[in-house]
Design a protein that fits this description.
Blueprint: H1 13-23, E1 32-37, E2 43-49, E3 60-64, H2 74-85, E4 89-93, H3 115-127, E5 133-138, H4 140-152, E6 160-164, H5 170-176, H6 182-200, H7 206-210, H8 214-219, H9 223-234, H10 240-247, E7 259-265, E8 286-291, E9 300-303, E10 306-309, H11 310-320
Parallel strand pairs: 3-4, 3-5, 5-6, 6-7, 7-8
Antiparallel strand pairs: 1-2, 2-4, 9-10
Helix pairs in contact: 9-10
Length: 323
């Protein structure tokens, strides 16, 4: 179960990364949407699949998506359906502004922003006092989750957690996204980020708030530049470098005391092996599994005409030993 074997014909990093998005046919899970109000007047939308009753002992997996991800993402829908088969309820906490409705405040979300997740998990503890809580973070959500686990230290409400394809060194990932074919991914993500930001100019004066004019926002040409001019400034960082340094999860991994599985691929087009920690220096609570193939959030095994989604199998197996 620990060793991933890419499906023949799908060993290429980009095929692993893109296959499910374009070719996986899923029946969308039945969602129940819960709007969670935040203390600063903003909100996050949380999509439940198989929401349990308050007195239930059904375990719950809290999901955190990647940059510009949502309930529509194939990796989110896939894991929700897979968890249901394993008897685990699931809920996706959208980061601010990612559920299809703009968030209320000028700020957004970022890779090290643990406050909303911490508040949501605390709320789940109160709503479902008899349920074990697990968590899964994908890409940006994985980095955020690992940082959150480090902040919890020995007071974690989570029984176990999994982080997948996490950009553990944000500066490395931002630089990698500007090289070769990765620029295609960058332009896709950047287009979505800029679209949302430009719409928010109707409600917030970013020129006054952070010195960013509409013209400047339109001219942003990389995620690193977006982070430097918007993400960092609106969230209280000096610049992108300061944001990356303080928010990268790798430096905090030795503080994690929750049982945690980190799954990475050496051929991830969003980063290089430079983001990886030294396995021998990790605490006993943290397992690092580095696969030769898998791309970014891919990990598709089986046959080309009958693909298997190994990642979902691995996550379920890991949680099953901790139920």
């Amino acid at each position: 179960m620990n060793n991933f074997q890419a499906a023949p014909g799908l060993k290429n990093r980009h095929l692993q990364t893109l296959y499910a998005t374009f070719f996986r046919k899923l029946t969308q899970p039945a969602f129940e949407i819960q709007r969670f109000e935040l203390t600063d007047g903003d909100f996050v939308d949380c999509h439940w699949h198989c929401k349990p009753s308050r007195k239930s002992t059904t375990p719950i997996a809290v999901l955190f998506h990647g940059l510009t991800g949502s309930y529509r993402s194939s990796y989110i829908q896939g894991i929700m359906l897979s968890l249901k088969k394993a008897g685990i309820a699931s809920v996706l906490m959208h980061f601010r502004g990612c559920s299809g409705e703009l968030n209320r405040t000028a700020r957004a979300y970022h890779s090290g922003d643990t406050c909303d997740a911490k508040a949501w998990i605390a709320s789940l503890q109160q709503q479902f006092p008899n349920s074990k809580l697990f968590a899964i973070g994908y890409s940006l959500g994985g980095n955020m989750l690992l940082k959150l686990l480090a902040e919890y230290r020995d007071a974690s409400p989570l029984s176990a957690a999994v982080a997948v394809s996490a950009p553990l060194q944000l500066e490395v990932s931002a630089a990698t996204m500007q090289l070769g074919f990765a620029r295609v991914y960058q332009q896709h993500l950047l287009k979505l980020l800029k679209q949302t930001l430009l719409v928010k100019y109707q409600y917030h004066d970013y020129q006054t708030l952070i010195g960013l004019s509409v013209k400047q926002a339109k001219s942003i040409s990389s995620i690193e530049q977006f982070d430097d001019l918007y993400t960092a400034k609106i969230h209280g960082f000096a610049n992108a470098k300061d944001y990356y340094q303080r928010s990268s999860a790798r430096q905090y991994l030795n503080q994690i005391e929750t049982d945690t599985l980190i799954i990475q691929a050496l051929d991830d087009p969003f980063m290089t092996s430079a983001v990886l920690p030294v396995a021998e220096r990790l605490p006993d609570s943290v397992i690092l599994e580095v696969q030769q193939h898998g791309g970014h959030l891919g990990f598709i095994s089986g046959k080309l005409w009958r693909p298997e989604y190994w990642l979902e199998q691995r996550i379920n197996h890991y949680f099953s030993t901790r139920l």
